[in-house]
Amino acid sequence: MAEEEQPTMPEEEQPPTEVEANPQEDPLKDGIKSMKSMFRSDARNESNKLFRELDGDRSKSASHEEIAKFVASNDQLWALLSVNLDQPKEVATEVATRVAMELATELKGEEAMNAELNKDQFHNFRKKYILDPTGSQEFFFRAVFASFDKDSNAVLDEQELDQFLEIFYKSGSTFQGSMGTLKLPPKEKLHEIFLKEFDENDDKELSFEEVRVIISGQVNPDVAAEIEVAAAKAEAEAIERSERLEEERLEQERLEKERLEAERIENERLEKERLEKEEAASAENAEKEGLEAERVEKERLEKEKLEEEKAEADRIEEERRMRQQEEEEQKRNEEKLQEEQAKEKAPGPKEVLVEKEEDDSGCPLCEWLFGQPTPAK
Hints:
single chain, mainly alpha, two-stranded antiparallel sheet, two-stranded antiparallel ribbon, 13 helices, 4 strands, rod-shaped, disordered N terminus, RAD54-like 2 (Saccharomyces cerevisiae), calcium, EF_Hand_1_Ca_BS, EF_hand_dom, calcium ion binding
C-alpha cells in the first residue's frame, strides 16, 4: 500500500492571503468570498472523509466496487433514475455507478469500469455532479442516456433509440419540454424526426450531446412545431382510419345481415322443397301401400275363393264317396239278402249233387256258392 498523502487543497481553492486581500473592497463581498471559501474547504474535507471511508484497503484509490457502494448509499444519484425509468434499485445503481466512473475518470466503457479513482478525482466528481444542482441534473441526463446505451459505446443506435423513445409513450404519448406539453406522433414518425433534426453526422446514431436536448426537454420551436404537426396529422389519420374502419365494419355488418337473410330464405326454400318432396313421397308411398293392400286383399279373396271352391269340391267328393259307399253297402246288403234268400230256396245236398251230375255245363249256383264252377262231366 502506498503512503497516505496529507490532505491538500487545489490551488484554485486556497483561501486568499492577506497580501492578496484588497482593503478597498466592499466588506459584504469579502464576507461572501469568505463564506464560499469556507464552503469549498468544508466540501473538500467532507470529500476526503468520504474517500477514506470508501478506501477500505487504504490503497489511496477507490475501485469500481467501492464507488458502487458510495453510489448505492446516495439516493440522489440513482433514485430519480429509478422512478422516472421504472428501474429496480439494483439496475439504477449499476447505471449510476457506470456514469460516475466515466465522469470521474474521463474514460469510457470497460476502461472506465476497470479504473480506480484517487481522492482528487472523487472530490471533483462529488463537487461537480453532487453538490452542484446543475451538475446533479447533468448527471441525471447522462444516467438516462446510459440506461439505453446497452453496449456502452457512447451512442444510441436505432434500436436503442426506439427503446429510449418508448419512455415518452409510457407517460401518455406526450413530451414535456420548454415549449410545454407536446402531443406525440407515432413512435416511428418521432424516430424519423429526431434522427433528421439531431443526427448531425447522418450516421443513424445519436451521441449524448445530440440527445441532450431531448432528455432535457430543450427542443427548439421548429422541432416542436414539426412534432405537433406530425402528431396532428397522425391524429387526423387515426380519426380517418377509425371512421373508415367503422364504415367498413358497418358495411361488413350490412353484408353479413344480407347474407344471413339470403341464407334464411334459401333454408326456408330448401325446407319447403324438402317437405313437398316428403309429402309427394308420402303420397306415393300411400298409393303404393294402397295398391299393395288392394293386391294383397285381392290375393286373399282369390285364395279364399279357391279354398272355398276346393272345400266345395272336397265336400262334393266326400258326398259322392259317401253315396258310393252307401250304394256299395246297399248292394252288398242286397247281395247278402239274395244269398240268404237263395240259401233258403236251395235243395238238399243229394238233390244238388244229382243236379250237378246231370248238368254238363256246370252249375252257376254252385259257382256262386262255392267260388268255383262245377267241372263238366
